[in-house]
Structures are given as structure tokens and as C-alpha cells.
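User: Hey, my collaborator sent me this sequence without any context and asked if I could get a structure. I don't really work with proteins. Can you help?
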Amino acid sequence: MSLGYIARQSFAKIPSCAEIPDLIEIQRDSFQWFLQADVAPEERKRQGLQEVFLEIFPIQDFTGNLVLEFLEYRLEKPPLTIKEAKEKGRTYAAPLYTRVRLIDRRTNEIREQDVYMGDMPLMTEKGTFVVNGAERVVVTQLVRSPGVFFSREVTSTGKVEYGFKIIPNRGAWLEFGIDPGDVLFVRVDKRRKINACTLVRALGFSSNEEILALFDRHSLIRKTLEKDPSTNVKEAVTEIFRRLRPSEPPTEENTRDFIRYLFNDRRHYDLGEGGRYKINNKLRLEERIVRIEEPVIAEDLVIDLHTREVLRTFSEEMENDFSRYQVVLRKGDRLGRRLAQEIENLNREYPIEYVKVFNEEDAPVKVYVEREDTWEVLSENLEGRVLSEDVRDPDTGELLLERGKTLTLDVLRELRGLGIERVRVQKSRTLAPEDVVGSIRYLLNLIDGIGYDDDIDHLGNRRARLVGELLQNQFRTGLLRVEKVIRERMTIQPDTESPTPQSLINVRPVVAALREFLGSSPLSQFMDQINPLSEITHKRRLSALGPGGLSRERAGFEVRDVHYTHYGRMCPIETPEGPNIGLITSLCIFAKVNEYGFIETPYRRVIDGRVTDDIVYLTADEEDRYHIAPSDVKIDQNGFIAEENVVVRFRGKIVEVQRSKVEFMDVSPQQIISVSASLIPFLEHNDANRA
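Assistant: No problem. I've predicted the 3D structure and written it out in C-alpha cell form, which is a compact way to encode the shape of the chain:
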């Protein structure tokens, strides 16, 4: 590598096969995700600022006569340059205008207007904000990821207690547990206990027989059903309403949309992209069997391709009739990752539902196969679902709908008109009944010894909230206040006057929310400018503190400690001494944050003992599945690992395996430390826990 006329020479014994990335890209990319300033209004994705506007608009009054719709937003040129803002002690920002349409249904009058929404602070090329003349950095926050988390605790009496929590990004927490009488209960938002079968019934599974069939007549479900006070959906919803809102009368009007309001309304309940990803991943067959090394199949599984029936016994005639029978599993086979994926794919087409395997105590147990995303015939119940892959015209191959598009009734009718009978959808970001059922099934499997509980300090269960997401949350808070004002103004508007969009919108709450966040939030900090290195370090800092995070007083030793999943993601060395130790850390030199907020680190792919130059970024969850060799492994001239046996990392343990079993290898010895630590020569020649 050369810098101008000077050639940079490396004296490293182990060459790095990956270039050091742009170190402040993490800040710039996140702000670009939020603002989408360079994207044409009609091409903007539903994310960041665009997502907030689409969530809150259209706004209508209580009579439904006045409707205010959002069309698009645009940014004007900033009135001050960065230099002028610093000199004059002002904020570097651009005026934000939104185009809105007001429809008056009484007079059928439609008015469109550009409304000034305040000044949007802009990020400089260096990844900073200029606020009142001073440069500030928004630090990345590390928080508990939304999703489903299973726990297994041994009490002082030696009894094992199982439970799980479904935690959203926004909305009511669900905590499931088993009481001393062997009855499964649930707490909604840490309030009073509710029988778990009452909740399952309220989600639309009416009869006892239906509920028993869902959970394979498990003894725990039988006992829970005996104590269930409800007998149908209506009674179940009324019972939950009575428990959660004891001061309100459970009238038909109050209870009708109560469950939908709690779990299916995006305004009140949102799992977020990360939460949806975590739930889908956790409930997969592959994840259930991962802790038992390739469990043994306890019964045959054959599909009759003519009748689409799933058969559980194997006969000789099936072996010879390939055209009719597909033999998926034979008793005694081992269930590996690839086979698990194949079964999940088949479950989209055929009702497999479960696979029987022997657990660690050699007892046959049913392992459920959940549907992550399903092939469904177009119907009304697809409304609100999201496409999990592109939809193309069957004749021309032209792209009709992109992956991620939300299905509305109009879109469904359009697709039906084009003769498209099936689409692949994924669950939306709200809670679906099958999520609750799937989680209870996983709990029953866990009690039977299949699956595993979650480690809350594992980086697969913690996600990074970048500057874009933090600004989005602030903007949403401000816009919700604006919505309230608009509704009030619509209601008190005299019938004789026709209002304008400008007269309805008061932008002060939005401006105040953004100003307050950048000016006084613990995550918005005055930039450390002692030298260029301290600047870069500040922009790559991770904090577990701040709103929605931990507090110094409550954080225990486990949260602060180094975890094996920090390898290549969070620096184990660079952390302050004192009360913040382990709570404020730094991103590793090659680490990046993916679309769901999980930190990834790069590895070189190894195929049959041969090290390739193919670099793959893995999250902490994905890394748990593979054997990973360190970067100092000896490689021969042909790119093969020289030693027959290699010491590798596997799920936090150091084990020795044959070279053919190695799947990945570190890209550089530097990858475990941060930018600052990587500049210390002979870093390892020191006391073990100080640098």
C-alpha cells in the first residue's frame, strides 16, 4: 500500500486478507437510512423518517369528515454552511417540508399544501452534528433485543422452573411461567396472572379440543385447561379485559377490539425488524435441535405425493414407488442442520407439523416444525402481511411487487386479476397467534429436553440502536404529539369554516423533541476532539446506558463482563475504569452492524480444509453453528490448512477437530480489538487484563 510517494510496509507475520473498512461509515449510513435525502420521494423505502410519517398519517377527526393525508417530504438547502454554523453558534440544519392533502368529506373539497415541519439537523461528512456551534456525536446504544427469550432456573429447593418472555420494541410484554400447581400462566405488562389457555382462546382457538390438538395433548396444557375460566373466544377476551382493566366495565364495545389493540395495532405494538427476525429464527426446527448433536429420529416420515398426506410408518412398497412416495426420514437416522432446513421447506407444502426424535434421556419427543413464512392461497386474511420475496409476472417475468411490500386488499385483488394464485408472505411486525402458539410449543419441548434457554448477555440477544433509529424514535414522539393537536383542532373546527392543512398542524412538538434529544440526551455527547484518534473512537463507541438501557446502579457483573460472543464485535480491552466499566465499550476494528441492529464480524470461508478468499459477515447467533479457526493457522502453498487437527472455537469452547470440519477462519489477528487498542505495539506483552 502506498500513501503519496511513501510506500507503507507491513512487518506483520500473519497477513490480513481484509482491508480495514471506513471507520465512521456506521454513523453516516445510519443517518442516510433515516433521512433518505438522496432518494426520490416515490422511491423511498418504508424506513426512518418515511416510516414515521406513514405510521401516523392519515389522521382523521372523530366523525371521519376531515382526513389529513401525507404525500411526501423534502429538504431545502441549509441556510448556513457548517463553518458558518460553528462561527455563529447556530445549528447546522435544513428546513423540512411535508406535502399533505386535506380532504373535507362534507364538501368534497381537497386541499394540498406544503407545510414547514421545522429544521432537520444534518450530519456532517465526519459523522457529527453541529448543535449551537459545537460538534456533537450520537453514541450507538446497546440494548436488549426484542424477541422471545426462554429461561430455565433451578430454585433453592432444586426444582427447575421454566418460562419465557415475548418482548416487543413498543407495546405490552408477555411473560409466561408455570405456577406450583403445574398451571401455565401469563402476565401482560407485569400485571396480574392470567391462565395461558385463556390467552390462546382469546387469539381465536375456541374449543378445548382445538387447543389440546395444538399442543399434542401435553399434560401441562391439560391441567391449564382445567383451570381456564373461559369456554369461548368472547368469554376469554372479557376475562383478559377484566384482569387488565379492573376499573372499566367489560361491555361489548370495550372488549370487541381489545386483543387487536394490544397485539395487532402497529401504533401500540411493534416487534421491530429485529424482533420479528429473532422470533422467526428461534422457533425454527434447526434452532431447536442445535444443542443436541444431531439427535436420532424416533419414527419414520413419508409423504404421499398423490394425497398430500404425511405418513408416520414405512413399508417396502413405498421404497419402490418413487413416483408416489417421498421418504423424508427413517427411524434411526440423524437429524442434522441440512435435513432440518429441508423439512422446514417441505412443511410449507405439506402438513408435517412435527418430527419425533430421542432427547438426551433417550425418550421420544415431538419437535414442532413452525412455519416461518407460508405459501398461502390469496385470501382476505393475508391483508397486512408482508411479502418475503419478489412477485413477478408469470408470463413476462416483470417485477410486480418488491420483497417487504405490505399487502393491502387492493394489491391482493390486483394480483388475483393477474392470475397469481400464491404468494410467499412473512408475519408482520405485530404479534401473530402462531407466535404465541409456537413459543408455548418451544417451552413444552424445552421441558422435554429439546431446545435451549437463552443467555441474556449473548450478543445475539443484544442489538445496537444507531443514530438513525434514535432520531426516528424522537421524531415519532414529536409527531404523536402533533397528531393529538391536529385531532383536537379538527374537532373544534366550526362547520362553516373550511380549514387548511397549515392551520391544523403545529410543528413545535417535533422541533422540541429533536432539539431536546441532540441538546440534552445522555447519548448525544460533546465530541472528544483531543486528537483524530479520540474522534474516531468516540464515533465507534457503544453504550449500554441511556433511555431504554441500563443504569449504572442496576447493572450487575454479568452485563459488564466479557462474553465469548464479543469476539470480533466488541473490544474486550477498551472500556473505562470506574462505575462505567463494561457498560461503555468500543466496536472492534472490522465489526459492522446489520439491518436488524446485530453486530457482525467477518470470517474467511473454509471448504474441505481449503481456505478461500470469500469473506462472510456473521452475527453472534450464526457463529454459534460453526467451527472457527484462528488467523494464525498454518496454510500450505495450495491454500490448505497444513495441520491434520486444528484447535477451533465452537460455542464459546476451545476444541480440537479435524481440518475438514473447520468452516470459517478469522480474517486478521487485529479483528478482536478496537481501533485504539490495535495501535498499541506488542499489545499482548502486558498484564492479562490491562492494556
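In plain terms: The two ends are 28 Å apart (CA to CA). You can pass these C-alpha cells on to your collaborator as they are.
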